[in-house]
Each structure stands twice: as C-alpha cells, then as structure tokens.
Amino acid sequence: MKIETRDHQSLNYQHFGPENGQPLVFIHGFGGYQQIWHFQAQTFADQGYSVYTYDQRGHGASSPAPDLDDIGVLIADLADFLAALKVENPILVGHSMGASVIYGFLKLFPQVPVRAIVAVDQSPKMLNTPKWPYGYRTATRANYRQVLLDNRSVRETYRGVPDELKWALAPVKELFPFDRADHQALLFDHARRDWRKPLLATTVPTLLVTAKESPYFKPAFATTLAAANPAIETACIDSCGHVVMGEQPAAFNRQLTAFLKAHDF
C-alpha cells in the first residue's frame, strides 16, 4: 500500500492489527527496509495495537531519492504519513536514523500530538566533542565524513540476525537494492544534526533502547540524557549490536511491551 507525500512522492507501507487500536509506527534507519521490524509487527498487532511500518523515501519500495541531502525531508514525510492515514496520537518507534527522524519530528512538528517515542541505538548528536563523548564511533566535526564512510572493520551486529529475518529481508533487498554511495549526502546531513534540545525538552514518555555491544554508540548517551529529563527511560540490551530488534527480538519486545504497559498504552 502507498500514500502520497506533499511533493507527490510515494511511501510504501504495511498495516497490521486492528484499525482502532493504539497506533504504533515503526521507522527503519539509513539503508534499511520496513521488513527489519519483522519480529515486531505481528507481535504487537496480536496485542491489539494498530501497527504501521513504512519504507522511508529513497529506501525500499518508496520513491527513489538519490539527490536527497536533508533529513528534514524525511521528517516531513513522517508528518505526511500520519496525516494521510489519519493516524492520531501515535507511539513512534525508530531505529538508527529512524530515531533521529523522530527526534526531529519533536522539534519541527510540535503541534502534532505524540503519545510516546522509542528510539533504538541512536545518539541525538553524532559528532563527538569534549563535552559530548557519546557520538558515532570516533566522528568529530573534522573527520566525520571519513569515519562514516570507513566501515571496513565494523560489524553491525554482534552475532548476526536470525535466518527468519534474513529471509524476510532478502526479497526486498533484491528488488530494491540500496546504494550507499548515492545517499552519502543524506548520511552526512544526518550526522551533522544535533537533536538534544528537543529530546531534553520533551514531556512525552520516551524510551531510549541501547545495545551493550553497539559498534556505533556508547550506551551512556541514554543514561546521560535520562539524568537530565525525567520523561526519559532507558533500557540496555545485552548480546546485540546495532540492530537490536532484529538480533535480540524477544528481549527487545519484552522491553517495549513493559514500557507500553507501564504507561497504560
């Protein structure tokens, strides 16, 4: 299924569960596909949630965007998605760059009510400084382009993802291959952003999920933010790398379920 954005591009999406349940919107990261939420979509639909996944612009079955150089476009796409499907008071769950889309949504669309947010392994500021040593690997303002492009020694997962997830992703990867070189400008813009202010100012219940063995981010970014804002909760999951919900789906689903139930969502 597809919706049309304000500039007549299409976003491919799937819906699971009842139409009248509490909306849960899952957003994948850079270079990702909506099928990365394979272990979450039906699980939370079976709990009565109205679950949505979608491919971001330039990804998967959505409109291609090889010249995209502004993550703000993806943030506006999220607003268009919610408006087109009349999704009200959603709980937004984002992984990696998808989490940054949510952080930006808090800043750029404060008029749109959101019930809660969940961010998976994504620091709101990716460039390291002496006062913020919680960015992406060793990236700084001076070297971030080189660090982002040099992933030769980085293993994104800790022990790999289950075969079931690989099988779910294989067909879409073959049909809609993602070329990182075509999307470098988007990646660089994503890295330059600093979303700490909207995150620290939010009163919306927020869960920051980190990975103990993340190759990209130190889990301490989440506890540092939680110490400054009582709306923020944290959960660190063992034995997984960056793709937390894919590598440790049972543990991730337990943490998300506990968060939702604790707030009566």
How would you explain this protein's 3D organization?
With 265 residues, the protein is α/β, with parallel strands linked by helices. It has one domain (2-262): Rossmann fold (3-Layer(aba) Sandwich). 36% of the residues lie in helices and 16% in strands. It has 10 helices and 8 strands. It has helices at residues 38-46, 71-84, 97-108, 144-149, 163-175, 184-192, 196-201, 220-228, 244-247, 249-262, and strands at residues 2-4, 10-16, 23-27, 50-54, 91-95, 116-120, 206-211, 232-237. An 8-stranded mixed β-sheet has the order 1-2-4-3-5-6-7-8, sandwiched between helices. α8 (220-228) links the parallel β7 (206-211) and β8. The radius of gyration is 17 Å and the shape is globular. The two termini are 26 Å apart. 45% of the residues are buried. The mean pLDDT is 97.
- What is the third-level CATH name, the topology? Rossmann fold
| Radius of gyration over all CA atoms, rounded | 17 Å
Average predicted confidence as pLDDT: 97
Number of helices: 10
List key phrases describing it.
globular, 265 residues, 8 strands, alpha/beta, Rossmann fold
How are the elements arranged and paired?
Elements: E1 2-4, E2 10-16, E3 23-27, H1 38-46, E4 50-54, H2 71-84, E5 91-95, H3 97-108, E6 116-120, H4 144-149, H5 163-175, H6 184-192, H7 196-201, E7 206-211, H8 220-228, E8 232-237, H9 244-247, H10 249-262
Helix pairs in contact: 1-10, 2-3
